[in-house]
Specification:
Layout (H helix, E strand, L loop, with lengths): L11 E4 L4 E7 L2 E8 L11 H15 L15 H11 L7 E2 H8 L3 H9 L12 E2 L16 H12 L6
Parallel strand pairs: 4-5
Antiparallel strand pairs: 1-2, 2-3
Length: 165
């Protein structure tokens, strides 16, 4: 497959309707999933862990009800992990606000937004299901309404059949 020079950072790249998803692995664990723009082309998996992750990403892209089961590297602070656990409980087709999650973890909406943006495993930890009280909100530390990352968030919510997207 044709690849960009930056594709060497990833153990696999899965092409999507919105661009691509880069998969990084380390020590038989998924180290990171990254939303990539369309100039990244697919890359075959180079190890069993990236193969498993790529297949699961593809299954999610075919079926938004697919449940991920991947060996994730333990990353993040205790607070981030608490926020990510709360986000992981949001079912497909639903969204909660940063304030909703903040109340669940006894914190502030802005801190929840920062933890969302620091998520190493988007899709697996579905931070796209967290929105602002007055609208879509940002995504992956980006808030440009016409930008790539917010466009990915819109695509994911539409894919999961969330009303209004």
């Amino acid at each position: 497959m044709k690849q960009t020079s930056s594709s060497s950072l990833f153990a696999a790249i899965v092409e999507t309707s919105f661009g691509a998803i880069g998969i990084r692995t380390e020590d038989h664990l998924v180290r990171e999933l990254v939303y990539l723009p369309a100039n990244f082309q697919g890359k075959d998996a180079i190890d069993p862990t990236s193969e498993r992750a790529a297949r699961q990403v593809e299954r999610y892209l075919d079926d938004p009800d697919f449940q991920f089961d991947l060996p994730l590297m333990p990353l993040g602070t205790a607070f981030q992990q608490k926020v990510w656990a709360a986000i992981s409980e949001i079912p497909r087709g639903k969204v909660l606000t940063y304030g909703d999650i903040a109340r669940r973890v006894q914190s502030a909406p802005r801190a929840v937004g920062q933890a969302c943006g620091a998520n190493w495993f988007p899709l697996v930890i579905p931070c796209h299901r967290v929105t602002a009280a007055g609208g879509l909100g940002g995504f992956a530390h980006q808030d440009d309404e016409t930008g790539f990352h917010v466009g990915v968030k819109r695509w994911l919510l539409a894919h999961e059949k969330v009303a209004g997207y």
